[in-house]
Amino acid sequence: MQMIVHLGENSYPITIEEGAIHHIQDTIDTHRKIAIIADDKVPDQWVNIVADQCENAFVLRFPAGEGSKCFTQFEALLEQLADQEMTRKDAIIAIGGGVTGDLSGFVAASYMRGIDFYNIPTTVLSQVDSSVGGKVAIDMGSYKNIVGAFWQPKAVIIDPDVLTTLSSRQVNNGLVEALKTGLIQDPVLVDLFEKETLDLPQIITRSIDVKRKVVEADEKEAGLRKILNFGHTIGHAIESAYGLDTYLHGECVAMGMLFFIEDKALKDRVLKIYDRLDLPKVPDYSIDQLMHYIAHDKKSNRNSVTVVKVKSAGSYILEDLSFDQIRSRLERGPYEE
Ligand SMILES: O=C(O)C(=O)C[C@@H](O)[C@H](O)[C@H](O)COP(=O)(O)O
To answer: In the 8-state DSSP scheme, what is residue 106?
Structure first.
């Protein structure tokens, strides 16, 4: 199936289809020089399938992990594009997860002030969320996504078949972003997490459809798009406080959501889903340290931060909380009502 993200001249198609990786020419102009960027954990088989369909491609690998979303890696990739004499007419294809998409997308947004960027997500997290919407970024030290741009891809190709090479931890990590999407916008998506078997293609399709609509309504996060940050205010802070490679992004978002689910029955439901997904418990934390990171959140103002709360599945409340109010939320802890 195909969906279009309607953004005027930045509109693009999203293909969601088993086997889609075998016919990328349907949405990618492959008759030009193409830099394929993937981290070193993306299996060769996926990279080769894509490279073999391009007329003139070269592959750039970088070390897997959040640590690669840094200035050094960003610069190294840009240098390699220049060494390969990439021009403004050429393009980048990212194959991988959220880190690969964020980093390669920011390289694409920056090289010669912007070249075409295509995303072929190969993790659940990137297939349900990060590949769509054009947020591209690197981290600065332990501040997450603090340097970046909005740079929409020209096309996104989602092939659920490529998920077969992922570890179950990676699958579950990604599913958290889909659960997040359900909690803020789509109760049926939440129900899917309680079925006997998890229907991944359906979870992906429903998540991306919500994401597409939110991005169409608010591309640059002036208002509504902030709801996609449910769980991220405290989640990003935990991710930073524990070192960016201790917990996975989705695991931290799961922890962060608990602080702002404001209904006991819903929280119990969500905790059962967390058990099923084998997610880690919220570790001990220093409130001062988390507050330090929260103050640098992109949703922060001078003394407050916009947070997303959920009282019933499929609906959100956007609220400005003072730092003191956030502090008392942290004092109460994630498991209290
Ligand atoms: O696309 C968005 O908008 C999101 O907020 C999706 C988030 O799940 C994603 O993790 C995003 O990268 C975080 O955004 P940030 O603005 O807090 O860096």
So the answer is: H
Closest CA to 157 of 7, 44, 46: 46
226 C-alpha to center of ligand 1: Å? 8
Tell me the DSSP string of 170-226. Answer: HHHHHHHHHHHHHHHH-HHHHHHTTSSS--HHHHHHHHHHHHHHHHHH-TT-SSGGG
Q: Which amino acid is located at 208 in the chain?
A: I
The CATH fold of domain 2-165: Rossmann fold (3.40.50)
Using CA atoms of 151, 152, 155, 160 in order, give the dihedral in degrees to the nearest 10.
90
Is any atom of ligand 1 closer than 6 Å to the C-beta of 39? no
Per-residue pLDDT reduced to its tens digit, 276-322: 999 999 999 999 999 999 998 888 888 999 999 999 999 999 999 99
CA distance 192 to 203: 7
CATH 1.20.1090.10 fits 172-332, yes or no: yes
What value of ipTM does the predicted structure carry?
0.95
| pTM, 2 dp | 0.93
Let me know: does 158 contact 202? Beta carbons within 8 Å: no
The string of pLDDT tens digits covering residues 10-24 is 999 999 999 999 999
Cβ–ligand 1 distance for 139 under 6 Å, the answer: no
Domain borders along the chain are 2-165, 172-332
The tokens for 38 are: 């993937």
**Res 244: pLDDT:** 66
Q: What is the pLDDT of residues 156-181, one digit of tens each?
A: 999 999 999 899 999 999 999 999 99
